[in-house]
Specification:
The strands form three sheets. A six-stranded mixed beta sheet has the order 5-2-6-7-8-9. Strands 1-10 form a two-stranded parallel ribbon. A two-stranded antiparallel sheet has the order 3-4. By secondary structure, it is α+β, with helices and mostly antiparallel strands. β8 and β9 form a beta hairpin. It has three helices and ten strands, in the order βαββββαβαββββ.
């Protein structure tokens, strides 16, 4: 079966706003955070629904790379365990480039090939943030539709 950009990522307006705000809060560095929600099967394939967002620290403190703080990731995982859900993805910002995975993003995604990866471009020329989502597996990038509701 071919790898595709499914499922659609479903965010509430409030979650979308929190993600964007965290990206601005991270400037001048890349910001990052985690997405929690339901997943299916032993491989924990995301359904696309996001029930919780967890802004996290970028321990790289870099405008070019990000690494989610390990202690904050553990707290998010425990929070999701409590409600019978899992981490289904993450987000990070690109401070001056497009909302498209860099070669570093593709390599990093190999650690969690089932996740949905959200990239928020804060490129000044856009005038406003651009949020896009992807699945990345075995070096293949597939864009995921984003539905913001509420």
């Amino acid at each position: 079966m071919a790898f595709t950009g499914t499922p659609t990522l479903r965010l509430t307006r409030s979650q979308h706003e929190r993600i964007i705000a965290s990206c601005y809060d991270g400037l001048p560095n890349e910001a990052c955070g985690l997405l929690g929600g339901p997943a299916l099967g032993a491989l924990e394939e995301p359904t696309g629904v996001v029930t919780q967002v967890f802004p996290t620290s970028n321990v790289d403190a870099s405008s070019l790379t990000y690494t989610v703080d390990g202690k904050e990731m553990l707290r998010a995982m425990r929070s999701m365990d409590e409600v019978g859900e899992v981490l289904v993805g993450c987000w990070h910002s690109h401070t001056h480039t497009e909302a498209y995975p860099s070669p570093t993003d593709v390599r990093t995604a190999a650690a969690n090939p089932n996740w949905i990866y959200v990239i928020v471009s804060l490129k000044p020329e856009h005038g406003q943030p651009v949020l896009r989502a992807y699945r990345m597996r075995d070096g293949v990038i597939a864009e995921v539709a984003v539905d913001v509701v509420g």
